[in-house]
Design a protein that fits this description.
heterodimer, A: alpha+beta, Fumarate Reductase Iron-sulfur Protein, Chain B, domain 2, 2 domains, five-stranded mixed beta sheet, 9 helices, 7 strands, 32% helix, B: eight-stranded mixed beta sheet, four-stranded antiparallel beta sheet, 35% helix, binds flavin-adenine dinucleotide, binds iron/sulfur cluster, binds FE2/S2 (inorganic) cluster
């Protein structure tokens, strides 16, 4: 099958270009990451990140035939119609909107900065008990669909608002994590957290376009979390 | 020899659970600490851990006792786990787990609001007399993810200095063998830097990638073991590799033992629940070594499933959709993706798969690395400046077979213990080893050798050959002649890898260079494993030989120590002296 990959090495290339590879997959419905590994056997200069190869570490977010996803859990049959059958090329590009370091490797600094801004850690100043803090199963359920984020950046790099304001708009991933702590019955910094989000950019740049939801490989829903924060902000204002 | 030097009080190499628990302790103490990790910390392998962290927090059973956990762990280890270390882990465990909860780890909960605990293999109440225990604390089936992200968040909060996507290439030691720090490469730019520190903590995780079929992440290449061996530091019990009963056939990805804890069981092609024959009491929750061997016997006796009869099935559908989706949501996802089977409706094809390295750098309970003072026959002595925690270390709490959920506990208990010890030692004044230019040259030699390579075989093809050699000769069942042959093949691979070629010599984010450096480490781990496995002439725990089918307490109730300088296998006494409880005497191990 044919694979077309975005290549750029800052030491030798003035500009990025697409390079074509012919890969023998034996007609199998391999994962995109398996195909990349086969490409690397042909051409060891091919650069990309990977670690767990099972969709839990968030290393290999990339743009696969126009849509962001994780290479390791995207089978060729799901990359785009016709790719598995060899009728269409598999097209791999780095996540959009972030600076490219090399090939499919992007600089995630801006993405991590936004994550850090939401103070992504539990804040509770009451002295800790001798055992665990208690939490009812119902309260615990409120952080399901939030804590599972793997920081792959598929969502934020598909979000037009994040492309335009990656420094000021926190983006769906960071906002999801913000809500993960707002929704945790053990966290006491609600007011401070909300205060930090209450400006025209941090959260309110979200236009509800839902790109983030449609690409999240973990099936999480940042738009809904953003909606919940909006409600909390409104309530706080009253 | 002029590379940039950066100086710290302590450096931690590795940002998995063990490394980040250690760095957190030190960040809180205010000493100048750096954490170096070849991947962004939350991409470390700990993120993959599913089932949970085993610990007697007395939630599921208010009468639970850490001594029962200790009994299970000693028995699980087939009696070569050190009883002082196991005692420490099991007794300090509850406090360590509560700390994680206070940090925000989103554990699943019971109706009482306490941490949810599930049954895992090898767990009992009342020293094996009171039936199955439920002792594994879980955050659904994503406990490792929850734990790793929580620790990363706390490290952010406490201002740990991270060097993410930096690759530690070599341990720097002085002429006495004292650790002085590491040489590391910034992956993004290719710059090579000497990280100089009074304390160097290895937390580099496992090396499952020495086998072709493994549950381990692609980054699990045993870099810490490789660096240690090249610096003359020995490794202990490295022949002990755990094969997890339930790797997804073909893909190698794991489905947690928690599946069987929640009531799932294994069946052969006749639909028989065959574990009832091999372990009448514990059945599917016997020790992992026992279950893996039973599965292989079924397969070898022609009762395997599928067109080639080379796997068995894990049946879960009887648990019902609700339990599966609330308790094992990640497993349902993984199974659909990698086995094309929805556990709600059909069983998952599984096969024993390389999973965990019980052996590693020998340490005491403070994480201090040990060597034998008289070569492979001496007494243990500490190596100044060097520490190891987590899967890369052999403290040894797992002995010849690790119990499920005990690794995550090992990470946080000993990561924390090493942090506490180093903090204290720094306060009292630790020496900084001063390497001379010969020492630095030695540490740089390997980098130079790859940069000067031309011609020679490719990294990818040699890696594959090494992995299949290990898979064929050092798997679930082992045999003397096959292993002798395996040792020879590995020796041959050593000379070929020494001549291998790195095609891409660029600087910026050169993953080919990293993979080449990793191949050297895979080779070191493979060689030590091969020699140690061939040398241990008995069957114990995960090490099972056709030609020596029985446990031999007379000769082998001890640790093996592989000495990289002589490539010989020595022995070291197991600790049978816990401080607060009576010794657990070796018994025949049945489940
Ligand atoms: C699929 C799976 C599921 C598991 N489930 C469980 C479970 O439920 N319960 C349990 O107790 N155990 C479980 N285990 C075992 C457990 O997850 C591991 O043993 C444990 O996570 C290892 O942690 P660690 O901190 O030692 O190393 P890791 O998490 O592997 O981290 C190693 C770190 O070292 C860094 N590193 C390595 N080499 C270098 C280098 N050269 N330079 C710089 N940095 C380097 C890496 O970047 C990484 O940050 C599971 C294992 C697997 C494979
Ligand atoms: S819903 Fe909001 S956050 Fe999500 S992609 Fe659209 S603008 Fe971005
Ligand atoms: S919300 Fe989903 S897409 Fe976004 S970073 Fe987290 S896991 Fe990735
Ligand atoms: S390699 Fe970990 S998410 Fe794909």
């Amino acid at each position: 099958m044919k694979v077309s990959i975005y290549r750029y090495n800052p030491e030798t290339d003035r500009e990025p270009y697409m390079k074509e590879y012919e890969v023998d997959t034996g007609g199998k419905d391999l994962m995109v990451l398996d195909v990349l590994n086969l490409v690397k056997e042909q051409d060891d200069s091919m650069g990309y990140r990977r670690s767990c190869r099972e969709g839990v570490c968030g290393s290999d977010g990339m743009n696969i035939n126009g849509k962001n996803g994780l290479a390791c859990i995207t089978p060729l049959s799901a990359a785009a119609p016709g790719v598995l059958e060899g009728k269409k090329a598999l097209i791999l590009r780095p996540l959009p909107g972030l600076p490219v370091i090399r090939d499919l490797v992007v600089d995630m600094t801006m993405f991590y900065n936004q994550y850090e801004k939401v103070q992504p850690y539990l804040q509770n100043n009451t002295p800790a008990p001798a055992i665990e803090r208690l939490q009812s199963p119902e309260d615990r359920e409120k952080i399901d669909g939030l804590y599972e984020c793997i920081l792959c950046a598929c969502c934020s790099t598909s979000c037009p608002s994040f492309w335009w304001n990656p420094d000021k708009f926190l983006g769906p991933a960071a906002l999801l994590q913000s809500y993960r702590f707002l929704a945790d019955s053990r966290d006491q910094a609600t007011d401070e957290r909300l205060g930090k989000l209450d400006d025209p950019f941090s959260l309110f740049r979200c236009r509800g376009i839902m790109n983030c939801v449609s690409v999240c490989p973990k099936g999480l829903n940042p738009t809904r979390a953003i909606g919940h924060i909006r409600e909390m902000l409104l309530e706080r204002a009253v | 020899m002029s590379i940039r030097t950066v100086t710290f009080d302590a450096i931690v190499v590795g940002g998995g659970g063990a490394g980040m628990r250690a760095s957190l302790q030190m960040a809180q103490s205010g000493f100048k600490t750096a954490l170096i990790s070849k991947v962004f910390p939350t991409r470390s392998h700990t993120v993959s851990a599913q089932g949970g962290i085993t610990c007697a927090i007395a939630s599921s059973d208010p009468n639970d006792d850490w001594r029962w956990h200790m009994y299970d762990t000693v028995k699980g280890s087939d009696y070569i786990g050190d009883q002082d270390a196991i005692e420490y882990m099991c007794s300090v465990g509850p406090q360590t787990v509560f700390e994680l909860e206070h940090m925000g780890l989103p554990f699943s909960r019971t109706e009482e609001g306490r941490i949810y605990q599930r049954p895992f293999g090898g767990q009992s109440k009342n020293y094996g007399e009171g039936g199955q225990a439920a002792r594994t604390c879980a955050a659904a089936d994503r406990t490792g993810h929850a734990l790793l992200h929580t620790l990363y968040q706390q490290n952010l909060k406490n201002g740990t200095q991270f060097y993410s996507e930096w690759y530690a290439a070599e341990l720097v030691t002085d002429a006495r063998g004292h650790a002085a720090g590491v040489i590391a490469i910034c992956i993004e730019t290719g710059e090579t830097v000497f990280f100089k520190a009074k304390a160097t903590v290895f937390a580099t995780g496992g090396a499952g990638r020495i086998y072709s079929s493994t549950t381990n992440a692609l980054i699990n290449t045993g870099d810490g073991i490789g660096m240690a061996l090249r610096a003359g530091v020995p490794v202990q019990d490295i022949e002990m590799w755990q094969f997890h009963p339930t790797g997804i056939a073909g893909a190698g990805t794991l489905v947690t033992e928690g599946c069987r804890g929640e009531g799932g069981y294994l069946i052969n092609k006749d639909g028989e629940r065959f574990m009832e024959r091999y372990a009448p009491n514990a059945k599917d929750l016997a020790g992992r070594d026992v279950v893996a061997r039973s599965m292989m016997m079924e397969i070898l006796d022609g009762r395997g499933c599928g067109p080639n009869g080379d796997y068995v099935y894990l049946k879960l559908d009887h648990l019902g959709e609700e339990v599966l989706h609330s308790r094992l949501p990640g497993i349902c996802e993984l199974s659909k993706t990698f086995a094309h089977a929805d556990p709600v409706k059909e069983p998952i094809p599984v096969v024993p798969t390389c999973h965990y390295m019980m052996g590693g750098i020998p340490t005491n309970i403070h994480g201090q690395a040990l060597r034998l003072d008289g070569g492979h026959q001496g007494q243990a002595e500490q190596i100044p400046g060097l520490f190891a925690v987590g899967e890369v270390a052999c403290v040894s709490v797992h002995g010849a077979n690790r119990l499920g959920g005990n690794s995550l506990l090992d990470l946080v208990v000993f990561g924390r213990a090493a942090g506490l010890y180093i903090e204290d030692a720094l306060r009292q004044g630790m020496d900084q080893a001063e390497p001379n230019s010969d020492d630095m040259d030695r540490a740089m030699a390997r980098l130079r050798r790859w940069d000067d390579s031309k011609g020679g075989e490719s990294v990818a093809s040699l890696r594959k050959e090494l992995q299949s050699t290990m898979q064929n000769a050092f798997g679930v069942f082992r045999k003397g002649d096959l292993m002798i042959d395996g040792v020879k093949k590995v020796a041959d691979l050593r000379s070929r890898i020494g001549e291998a070629n790195l095609g891409d010599k660029s600087q910026a984010f050169n993953t080919a260079r990293i993979e080449a450096l990793e191949l050297d480490n895979l080779l070191e781990v493979a060689e030590a494993t091969a020699i140690a496995a061939e040398g241990r002439t008995e069957s114990r725990g995960a090490h099972s030989r056709y030609d020596y089918p029985d446990r031999d307490d007379e000769n082998w109730l001890c640790h093996s120590i592989f000495d990289p300088k002589t490539k010989q296998l020595g022995k070291r006494d197991v600790n049978f002296k816990p401080k607060t409880v009576d010794t657990f005497q070796p018994k025949v191990r049945t489940y």
